[in-house]
């Protein structure tokens, strides 16, 4: 579903009124999601088999004849595990993609009649799903940074210590890139923070002409597209 959503700059499209007509009830929303997820017919998200049938299971209305697993249109998607009605997801997606700077969880909370916590969760899931969609690189400007995750070397048991020095040694490095306009983010584990590694990470997620903002880490100083230096990254949503 995310893949067919119109881009932010694309201002044509259906109106909120048309959307309400298209999705009068939960059944219409489910059928729309199914047509998006399974354009060539329903198949099992676990084994791929097309031999499936309806089942009398409340949350997972279909069953695979081959691997015998129960599933729904949400299984294996960003909506998995969510109790939010599909119709509310439709409206959340609409509000997010039609809002130039992305919709706030407060607005979603008010417009959809869900708690703000639920609204935050929905936006998080959607943005995560879009960030994974590499087919649509960020237009920028983008902000890039890196985070070290994992335990401190000095807290490890002697036999697990890497004895390689200080700082990030022995931790997992996660590089992150965030599009300022859309607030979409992408993150991935990187082997190191060399110019080459971080440069290719940025290239994989942002358009070649996207303006890149970074912190003052030395690793970035040679990034070919570096345009500016940020001393701090401010996220207005926090
Ligand atoms: Zn199966």
Explain how this protein is built.
- With 238 residues, the chain is of the alpha/beta class.
- The protein folds into two domains: 2-38 and 73-132, no CATH class; 142-229, no CATH class.
- It is 29% helix and 16% strand.
- It has six helices and eight strands, in the order ααβββαααβββαββ.
- The chain has helices at 16-22, 26-37, 86-98, 105-112, 116-132, 195-205; strands at residues 52-54, 62-64, 70-71, 142-149, 172-179, 185-190, 212-214, 226-229.
- A five-stranded mixed sheet has the order 6-5-4-7-8. A three-stranded antiparallel sheet has the order 1-2-3, with no helix packed on it.
- Strand 5 and strand 6 (185-190) form a beta hairpin.
- Helix 4 packs across helix 5 (116-132).
- It is globular and about 55 Å long.
- Mean pLDDT is 78; it is low at 1-11 and 224-238.
- The structure holds zinc ion.
- Zinc ion (ZN) binds next to loops.
- Residues 44, 46-47, 49, 64, 66-67, 69 line the site of zinc ion (ZN).
């Amino acid at each position: 579903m995310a893949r067919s959503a119109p881009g932010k700059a694309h201002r044509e499209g259906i109106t909120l009124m048309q959307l309400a007509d298209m999705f009068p009830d939960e059944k219409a929303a489910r059928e729309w999601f199914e047509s998006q997820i399974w354009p060539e017919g329903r198949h099992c998200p676990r084994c791929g088999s097309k031999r499936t049938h309806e089942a009398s299971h409340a949350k997972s209305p279909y069953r695979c004849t081959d691997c015998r697993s129960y599933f729904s249109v949400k299984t294996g998607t960003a909506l998995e595990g969510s109790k939010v009605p599909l119709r509310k997801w439709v409206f959340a997606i609409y509000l997010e993609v039609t809002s130039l700077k992305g919709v706030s969880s407060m607005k979603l909370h008010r417009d959809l009649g869900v708690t703000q916590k639920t609204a935050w969760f929905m936006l998080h899931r959607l943005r995560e799903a879009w960030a994974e969609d590499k087919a649509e690189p960020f237009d920028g400007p983008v902000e890039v940074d890196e985070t070290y995750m994992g335990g401190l070397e000095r807290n490890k048991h002697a036999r697990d210590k890497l004895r390689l020095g200080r700082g990030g040694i022995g931790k997992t490095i996660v590089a992150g890139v965030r599009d300022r306009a859309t607030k979409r983010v992408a993150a991935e584990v990187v082997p190191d923070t060399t110019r080459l590694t971080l440069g290719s990470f940025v290239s994989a997620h942002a358009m070649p002409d996207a303006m890149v903002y970074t912190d003052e880490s030395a690793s970035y100083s040679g990034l070919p597209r570096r345009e500016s230096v940020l001393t701090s990254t401010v996220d207005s949503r926090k």
